[in-house]
Amino acid sequence: MRQKRDDKRTTVEIRHLYKIFGDDPKGALAHVEAGLSKAEILKEHNHVVGLNDINVEVKEGDITVMMGLSGSGKSTLIRHLNRLIEPTAGEVLVDGEDILSYGEEALRRLRREKMSMVFQNFALLPHRTVLENAALAPAVRGVKRADYEGEARKWLDRVGLGGNADQYPSALSGGMQQRVGLARALTSNAPIMLMDEAFSALDPLIRTDMQDLLLELQEELAKTVVFISHDLDEALKLADHLVILKDGYVVQQDEPQAILMNPGDDYIVDFISDINRARVLRVRSVMRPTAQPQPNVAGQVHPEDTLEKVIAISGGETGLRYAVTDDEGRQVGILEMEELVRALVPTGASESGMRARASA
Q1: Residue 223 CA neighbour count, 13 Å, CB half
Q2: Burial of residue 63 (number of CB atoms within 10 Å: 0-12, 13-18, 19+)
Q3: How confident is the model over 231-257, as pLDDT tens digits?
């Protein structure tokens, strides 16, 4: 069974974070706190609200996906985590320390030792080989090549580029270059990985491969990952914790299963209305928790099985029930196929969403 989120240590905590762009951000902040919208701040005060009172806890070993449409603030937010952008107000705590109080040396140490970053545009150095790009972090720290080369080659092998170590980035495809970026983040041995739309520039099939590779590596390494995306399918596939942003504020955050089953408002309802729920929802979200054996079960399923898998097992029979058993074979619930079918019925699009679609 999955470890409960509340049982995990908080690695990064964002508290009441604001970012306002303009000549007088502190002055504009007072109007934001008074309740003016992003549009009103821009129209009346000529300032842009990038982030509006963000509060998020990133748990150790989780993939936290922050997503939203263009202009939602997601890329601005991730750049606050390593202080590439300075906030207007708020706190960013890493392992309990407020990094906004860091001086230059402490900030360099944070970026070199605690955080790695995988960029959308790969950000490889064209005059360095694949191996040298993968080993950039230890090289910058002053580690001798003989001491880091084996580690860099190991991670290049793991991402499928073992035979490309001596090539230059220009000889690689986009997908291969992004694999170098991932190997570089892993070679740094930083416990926190920041990934800013890391796969969005890739072709769909390569993008799927990279998502699968990340999940495979995460199963082994349990890094703390903050992943930025504008793609809901990608977010639902990767996220342990999903944060949905709009106009610089958090609309809803929770485990993806919980958001699908209980959308917080009309915006979320519209956002998730076209999702293939059978492919995303898990048995644990639909089952009735119980350790009591039930008669007439058709078999056993696992709490992490998708509903799509259970439908295939059942052959589409809606009158069946299954015992839900964990990794140790203990019964933790009962799944009625009738309940599964009900869960597949999406929450209807909101009236505003239907009007927008009708006018499109």
Answers
A1: 24
A2: buried
A3: 898 999 999 999 999 999 999 999 999
